[in-house]
Design brief:
The protein is mainly α. It is 43% helix and 8% strand. The protein starts with a helix and ends in a 21-residue tail after the last helix. It binds zinc ion (3 copies). Pfam families: zf-MYND.
């Protein structure tokens, strides 16, 4: 940051005056400035290919790569050890697919592209492939975003501020990243649309339970030889959007929309929760009440109910394996 940016701000206010020094807001502002700088320079060093990578080839379950930035002098970047699976081209293609999938499910939320850079492991692995033989991050939309940043010569003004759309907002009056309300509100609209879709789709837990049941069924039918690829193929054949599950986690019975739909009990208060029977609805009430049971619009607007990756809190996988 230049000295003029430090003293004179866009609002005609001295940075030393707002937020007042020695307050929590002031400390938070400096955390924001540092976090944004780290993300920006990781992005820049990554896109410029100014990193060195040393991959361990030890006999271990996972290969580790050490990224260092000896040729990058604009900002001190710490070396990072990341997990990756860099090897032959076939492996790389597989890995790119998995990056694409995780990026699709990773909503960049109000933080914009720098929110993805903040996931340093994922970002540096993307950079490995971006500069590798295949010349792609594994995701077309991310290739486009990174191409745009490269062509602008890393112009901060085209990169949405990580904190502008956050609950406390961007506290830095001299922030140089993009602060367009229209961009933030269109991102917000996308987020709400995604959340709305999520409400009508099976949760991760429901899918995991169904996968587990497919596995058990398969192992029972083929006790002598389990072909993992064959099971995965069957799982992929299931179109998730064409099904509804009983919301009671102990039941989770599934209907395909092709089957004649039995009399589903819909929760009359929220209208987005379904049960196979009155009995299941009664059993599930304490859980669903706390979810909470509220009209879809209220659920969608309430940030406290959603994790940054776009998943509704409480629908994560772990609880099913209790
Ligand atoms: Zn900002
Ligand atoms: Zn049920
Ligand atoms: Zn309800």
């Amino acid at each position: 940051m230049t000295s003029s940016a430090l003293t004179k701000t866009g609002r005609g206010m001295r940075l030393s005056e707002f937020p007042p020094p020695n307050t929590n807001l002031y400390r938070l502002m400096h955390t924001q400035i540092h976090t944004a700088s780290l993300c920006y320079h990781f992005m820049r060093a990554g896109l410029m290919g100014r990193f060195e990578v040393e991959t361990s080839r030890e006999e271990s379950l996972e290969n580790l790569s050490q990224f260092s930035f000896p040729e990058y002098h604009e900002y001190p970047l710490p070396a990072r050890t990341v997990r990756n699976a860099k090897s032959g081209e076939e492996e790389a293609t597989k890995h790119l697919q998995s990056i694409a999938v995780s990026l699709e499910s990773w909503q960049i939320r109000e933080m914009g592209p720098m929110g993805v850079v903040q996931e340093v492991d994922m970002f540096l692995t993307m950079m490995l492939y971006f500069h590798g033989k295949l010349k792609t991050t594994g995701s077309e939309s991310w290739d486009n975003i990174f191409g745009m940043v490269q062509r602008s010569r890393y112009d901060k003004r085209i990169i949405p501020c990580m904190f502008f759309g956050s609950a406390q907002g961007c506290l830095n009056p001299a922030c140089g990243y993009m602060h367009k309300p229209a961009v933030v509100s269109s991102i917000r609209r996308d987020i709400l649309d995604d959340r709305r879709k999520t409400l009508n789709k099976p949760t991760g837990k429901q899918l995991a339970k169904e996968k587990m049941e497919l596995w058990i069924e398969y192992v029972e039918q083929h006790p002598e030889k389990v072909d993992a690829k064959d099971v995965e193929k069957r799982i992929k054949r299931l179109p998730p959007s064409s099904r509804k599950y009983c919301a009671n986690p102990q039941c989770s019975i599934v209907w395909s929309f092709k089957d004649p739909i039995p009399n589903l009990e819909m929760c009359g208060r929220c209208l987005w929760t379904f049960y196979c029977s009155r009995k299941c609805q009664k059993i599930d009430w304490p859980r669903h009440k706390a979810e909470p049971c509220a009209p879809a619009d209220e659920i969608i607007e309430n940030d406290a109910l959603w994790a940054p990756n776009g998943k509704r809190k409480g629908t994560e996988l772990d609880i099913i394996f209790e």
